[in-house]
Amino acid sequence: MLTALILLLQVSQIVEPYTFREDQGQTTKVVLKNGLTVILREQQAVPLISITTYVKAGYFDEDDRISGISHVIEHMFFKGTSKRPVGGIARETQALGGYLNAYTYYDRTVYHTEVPAENMKKALEIQADALWNSAYDANELKQEIEVVLQENNRKLDNPAAVASEKLYATAFQEHRMKRWRIGTPEGLRALTRDDIVGYVKKYYQPSNIILSIAGSMDSEETIAEVVKLYGGAPSLDDQAIERDAGSSEPQQTAIRYSWQRGPIEQNHVAIGFHGPGVLSDDARALEVLAAILSEGRASILNQYVRDEKGLITSGSAGLTAFRDLGYFEIDFETENPIDAQIAVLAEIENLKKNGVTKEQLARAKALIAQNRYHQLETVDGLAEDAAHYESLGDWKKSLSYLTSIQNVSIDDVARVAKKYLVFENFSAFEYLPEAVTRNYSEAQYRAAVLDKVPAALEPRTVQELPIAAEIPEAGDGLTADLVKPIAKRSLLRGPDVYIIEDHRLPLVSFGLFYPGGRLYESARNAGITELMLRSAIRGTKRFNSEDIARRLENAGTRIQVVNEADFFGYVVDGLSGRMDRALEILMDVLQQPAFLEDDIEKEKVLQIARIKKLRENNFAYPVSLFMQTLFGDHAYARPAIGTEAGLESITREDLQAWFKANQRPLVPTIVIVGDTNGTGLVAPLADVLTNEDLHDREIKSLPAPNFKNDRKETVETVPRQQTALVYGFPGAARSGNDRYALVVLENIVSGLGGRFFDAIRDKQGLAYTVRTENSFLSKSGAIYTYIAFSPDNEAKVKESLEKEMERLRKDGVTADEVKKSIAYSIGGHELGMQTRLGNVLEYARAIYGGDGIQGVMNYSRAIRSVTADQVKKAAQTYLDPALLRTAIVRGKKN
């Protein structure tokens, strides 16, 4: 009797902290006594854990005086607690092999960390400490607000982000969605610690937080740990949180239009319509409509407005939706904004008038399913997905999402288009280059655009192709034996095939690659490999561009061009059920590309637009400029998309010759990861992939870059809010002996908790972004640090960075730093290998980079063998002031 009583007491001790528990499949939900909701999703096949803290408060919950405070709190969350100093949270998490990040959105603030599964308990303790005990130090707050303002300046230098938020400012007249999300400099600088503490006290209550954990764990042990760390936090208010909701938005009854000129190269246009809340059936129909408009090369925007009419160079559509409101947005880049808007709106009117085809509907659903499954590939994706749906009322809504998409009918799509996509509900924002001189009023815009839409409608008859099968169901992902180790197979007189079977989700990534490509390009034909790859999928002897796109996407797949420094090719990625049909199309592209003049010219226009887009990117462009400065005349200096001058000189004959010399006769390498059985996907293609005329190509004999002992600097001045500095040196080849020491060095100095980050951002608040990266290639490498900051901080940033580098060369690193970096390097590698595409590309890089697949398989062991002496020697060897190369894109505020 006594034994039974003791057992009963033990059970009651376990159950007592809960007010609710629910178990379904791989997911467990409990609600603690203090109101905290906890969701666990087991995923035993990956040795990782993601911990997501989902706070149901964001920009919508801020009155105008404290606008931006949610984002400031996000920044302060990891700045120190009552028992951890500034930087301590980041350093301790890094030592666990973990990764920290956070973001703020209109209705939420989300913090997440991913760590190796064996370090879950310690990571939970760190996260709980940050949640309940953040110090919100007044001095740190003042400094961090300046960092937030640097982030804001970075956003102002992003044309697409400016266009989207300016659209909201145009479309919303009362609702808080009209505000610039981050807030104003004046408002942010006026925030006090009392403001921060008051907001946290109100919204960071257990009842307003969801803790979501996904990965390899024992659910019962994890729940016990959560109860210990989170269950003691008191609920600060027994009553429901009284939200400061702000004004609701009245119904729009007439068009709204605005414009702005800025230091950009392309016209960026954002148009949109008010829509329903996220939980409505109409929201699902609008999501399908958005996919019909812009998902894939066969979508309406890409097929008709971009490829057929040449009026846009890229475009996207989507529904941004919350509980009580939604907004349907279409964004595009164009050389001709007036004609492009007429064409886009004409396609919408045509859809309203004539509906969509069964093929379009099925294709959109298949691509939505593919996107959905890709979201669930990572433990972070699983954790945030569960938290998001729980915030909308029930995590199980996640399980029925694809079913609700599948239930959308042709009539539903037409109905929501007629209901929401009407001119009375329409707003537009044009972000124009400074050279554009027109100045339209709303009336002039209506006359120039909307009044001309009816005449732009074109009757269109399309012969429908076979449609994709029903959306496949995903497995429960519980068992590790759903994933098998990589296996190598060889085809006689054909390619080596590397296969990783992963049956957790109905997805496959099929990569087919060739050596060289850009390595054989010159300044005269820079960009020819990229142009060849993209022109080839515009047409073959059997199929035109539209046929190729439709047949691929009808099978629930997409084709992705891969053009890296040492190899090139394609990845066909998508639903596993019809991958065999997609690969038949790929084989046709590989064997018989047509290279028609018209297709080549259209693709040149798009490639030149990508070159302009690169120049607008305040990270990618400075890095590209650094590579040019570092590698000089070598092929590694040139970006994959080439140069405008190089592209203009390339002829059809050049492309045909390049294809015949650099792709058609070469033996490719195939890497397959996903829901497939052995060589099942390759066997039917054996005749195409094997040929006595094929031969191998070794790129080892190609010359390596020659670096002279002289410092070089490239500077460009642009009208931007921020200056971007890339400060770097020649690095190691992928197969070099110093590669792993350089990885450990990178993770000692870079990111949250890193030396450079601490010195420049945490201690001085001089920059928002401080990151160090290695580029390991077959013939050489690079190690560089990227920093973005206010133009007036340039001298201080350089001084701080050079001081830290000199300290590294002189004093080296500590054993403790190496230990923590080793854990972080291994953890980061595991995180990157969660996705099928990530695996495909990493193995391809290993094969063509010289270290082979064993380099991937032995990565952790090699990293663990790195010593502090090796890191110091690597710093002295590679951070050599005599070999310094810098690229500066210097901002100059208007």
Structure description:
Helices cover 43% and strands 19% of the residues. With 894 residues, the chain is an alpha+beta fold. The strands form 4 sheets. A 7-stranded mixed beta sheet has the order 1-2-3-7-4-6-5, with helices on both faces. Helix 4 (120-133) runs parallel beside helix 9 (219-230) and helix 19 crosses helix 25 (652-662). The chain is globular. The protein starts with a helix and ends with a strand. The model is unreliable at 1-15 (pLDDT under 50).
Give the gist of this structure.
The strands form 4 sheets. The chain has a 7-stranded mixed β-sheet with strand order 1-2-3-7-4-6-5, sandwiched between helices. A 6-stranded mixed β-sheet has the order 13-14-18-15-17-16, sandwiched between helices. A 5-stranded mixed β-sheet has the order 8-12-9-11-10, with helices on both faces.
Keyphrases for this structure?
894 residues; alpha+beta; 7-stranded mixed sheet; 6-stranded mixed sheet; 19% strand; disordered N terminus
Distance between the termini: 83 Å
Specify Rg, calculated over alpha carbons: 28 Å
Strand content: 15-25%
How many β strands by DSSP?
23
Low-confidence stretches: 1-15
Q: What's the topology here?
A:
Elements lengths: L1 H14 L2 E7 L2 E6 L4 E6 L5 E8 L13 H8 L11 H8 L3 E6 L4 E8 L3 H14 L4 H19 L2 H13 L13 H5 L3 H11 L5 E7 L3 H12 L25 E7 L4 E9 L5 H14 L5 H9 L5 E8 L4 E9 L2 H18 L3 H18 L3 H13 L9 H6 L3 H11 L5 E8 L8 H7 L4 H4 L30 E4 L5 E6 L5 E9 L12 H9 L8 H10 L2 E7 L3 E9 L3 H13 L5 H20 L3 H12 L12 H6 L2 H11 L6 E6 L11 H4 L22 E7 L4 E8 L8 H11 L5 H8 L4 E10 L4 E9 L4 H18 L3 H18 L3 H14 L2 H6 L1 H6 L3 H11 L6 E7 L3
Parallel strand pairs: 3-7, 8-12, 14-18, 19-23
Antiparallel strand pairs: 1-2, 2-3, 4-6, 4-7, 5-6, 9-11, 9-12, 10-11, 13-14, 15-17, 15-18, 16-17, 20-22, 20-23, 21-22
Helix pairs in contact: 2-5, 2-8, 3-30, 4-9, 10-13, 10-16, 12-16, 19-22, 19-25, 20-21, 27-30, 27-34, 28-29, 29-34
